[in-house]
Amino acid sequence: MALLITEDCINCSVCEPECPNEAIFFDEDLELYQVDPESCTECVGHHDDPQCIEVCPVDCIEPDPDNQESRADLEAKFERLQA
């Protein structure tokens, strides 16, 4: 399952450099950080836990209900992104 940054985000920017897949970006139109679900593996293949959640000071990152994936799906996505 990809992750989602909620509107509680304070735009502190600490999550973006922590993402090993570069899935986090600042959306100028929304003035909010977003997660690209095509690139987000919840850090599977890199870390035991999603690093963006670990560093977020306001706990505004949660599972994206519109992008549910199993651990196997996330592992397969990780492999595709590494190719």
In short:
By secondary structure, this protein is of the alpha+beta class.
Task: Chart the SSEs and their pairings.
Elements: E1 3-5, E2 24-27, E3 32-35, H1 51-55, E4 61-63, H2 71-82
Antiparallel strand pairs: 1-4, 2-3
* Class per helix and strand makeup: alpha+beta
N-to-C CA distance = 20 Å
Describe the main β-sheet briefly.
2 strands, antiparallel
Which bin fits the share of residues in helices?
Answer: 10-25%
Q: SSE order in H/E notation?
A: EEEHEH
- Count the helices. How many? 2
Multimerization state? single chain
Let me know the number of strands: 4
Outline = globular
Q: What's the average pLDDT?
A: 96
**pLDDT < 50 runs, ≥5 residues:** none
* Main sheet strand line-up: 1-4
Measured by DSSP, the beta-strand proportion falls in: 15-25%
Radius of gyration: 12 Å
